[in-house]
Amino acid sequence: MDFVEIEDDRVIVVEAKHGRAPSTSEHQWRDHALAYEAWPAEVAQVGLYMAMLRELGLPADEARIYYRASRSTTTIAWSPQLETFLHAVVRRAGEVNQHGTPPAPLKDSPKCPGCSLHGVCLPDEHHALLDQAPALRRLPIANEERSFVHVASPGATVRKDGEGLRIVDREGEETRVLTKDVAHLSVFGPVQVTTPALHHLLRRGIAVSHHSSGGELLGLSSPPATRNVGMRRAQYRCADDPERCVVVARGLVVAKIRNQRTVLRRQLRQRDQLDEAPRLAIEDAIERMQVSQRWAERSTTLDVLRGHEGEAAARYFGVLPHVLPSPWDQHFDGRSRRPPRDRVNAMLSFAYTLLTRETIAAATRVGLDPMLGFFHSMIPGRPALALDLIEPFRPAWSDTAVLRLLANSGIEPSEFTETAAGVFMTESGRRKLIAAHERRAREETTHPRFGYRMAYRRMLELEVRVLGKYLLDEIPDYTPIWTR
After folding, report:
1. What is the pLDDT of residues 136-165, one digit of tens each?
2. What's the CA gap between 348 and 391, in Å, rounded?
3. E-assigned strands of 119-256?
4. Rounded Cα–Cα distance for residues 270 and 273 (Å)
5. Alpha-carbon torsion (194, 199, 200, 206), positive or negative
6. 313, 83, 191, 9: which is closest to 175 by C-alpha?
7. Which of 146, 155, 254 is nearest to 201 (CA)?
């Protein structure tokens, strides 16, 4: 219940709604006439609240529904007619519950646009994938309006402050954010999150990711796992089926190679002054990567697939220095990791860590186990599924964010630290790369299969949900996204 008001010996249920009150007080639900300026579903909601309180012995004889959009209040009084209506609602709910889960989302139903769960059910996208045709309608899925908060200052403290968080850095400077505006909290290095703040976030379904100063993901504090046990059981069955593992892995690898080739083609178009030798080298790499892509499409085992993926990656990173601006082309000599041996690799590793964190959160929301994958080998403590799912997004999201940051002189070579253990970004460098990652996450693009625009962060969750549909046998094929 939103509120319970107590006036003398009366208990009043108060419910607040964002929408408008109906313009008429004459409604019909099955055989029941409802003479209230409120929608039937909301009359049932507050009526059942009153019934629960009355069963506990409280004198709940009245409910009020406040509609914010129309700034009006409707009063619902307890009556024999209301009680009869509530009994009918409960009986109907029991009948509907006996029907079980519908076999598939509704097709072209007028109910879908007004449903708050169409972003989970994906009715139009579901049938577009089944029919291998564009969606009949466009039901744009809302992007995440809340912010992803990153705390990268060593020695900072995150405290609970009423219905918000207060972040205090080591110099004493304070920043306050409202909890309702936070989608995720990431802390890097020695940052303290107080127990009350952590409990406050978990109660509201907000996860906290813990990273080392270098960006390595150490762990995730998140609310209890989703109740979608059926999704996880389907994932485990698929992981035990070698043929289905190859289907998922093949789609991810092919999409990754396609997106890598797209990144190189875009860089060629944007760098008109590129010398002939580097241009020819990039064009040759794009053609050879296409051959690797075609072989990957025909692969029937994971080992063969890994070979073609590695060959394409070697060609991709081999020509990447040609598209880097000076002096960054001197700071990259092929892909290196754990630890990164140069500045560009340090940026790529940090960007991939941020993307892995995004994917773990998305997989958890959908109901999948981020530790059990289909392409990457399963090692204790390794989020194999998250590493699988980021493959198509590495070039389209992380690599693009890094290349743009370098092209716009958004980071300096001095913002790195070289040690015997490798090259790492300083605090200011991490802040700049986090900002570049967030800009790319919020950037909207047209989905190549469904035809409407959405942010990359929302597209990532959509792809996880599409994989879930394949695991549940709701769609016959799995084809990850590729950029144009």
Report:
1. 666 555 556 777 888 888 888 999 888 888
2. 13
3. 147-151, 157-161, 164-168, 174-178, 182-188, 192-193, 207-211, 217-221
4. 9
5. positive
6. 191
7. 146
Q: Are 97 and 89 a contacting pair, CB within 8 Å?
A: no
CA–CA distance, 348 with 397 (Å, rounded to integer) = 11
Round the average pLDDT of the chain to a whole number and report it.
85
Residues 6+ apart with CB under 8 A from 411: 347, 405, 429, 432, 433
CA atoms of 337 and 324, how far apart (whole Å): 19
| Rounded CA Rg of the chain | 27
**Strand 72-77, strand 27-29: pairing:** unpaired
pTM for this prediction: 0.76
Cβ neighbours of residue 149 under 8 Å, at least 6 residues apart? 165, 167, 177, 182, 184, 185, 186
Answer yes or no: are the C-beta atoms of 151 and 186 closer than 8 Å: yes
**The residue count for the chain:** 484
Are the CB atoms for 104 and 474 separated by under 8 Å?
A: yes
**DSSP codes, 270-293:** H-TT--HHHHHHHHHHHHHHHHHH
Alpha-carbon gap, residue 80 to 78, rounded angstroms: 7
Q: In angstroms, rounded to a whole number, what is the distance separating the alpha carbons of residues 310 and 341? A: 19
Task: Kindly indicate the confidence band of residue 307, based on its pLDDT and cuts at 50, 70 and 90.
Answer: very high
**Sequence-separated (6 or more) residues with CB below 8 Å from residue 277:** none
Cα(350)–Cα(340) distance, rounded to whole angstroms? 10
Q: Rounded CA gap, 443 and 451, in Å?
A: 16
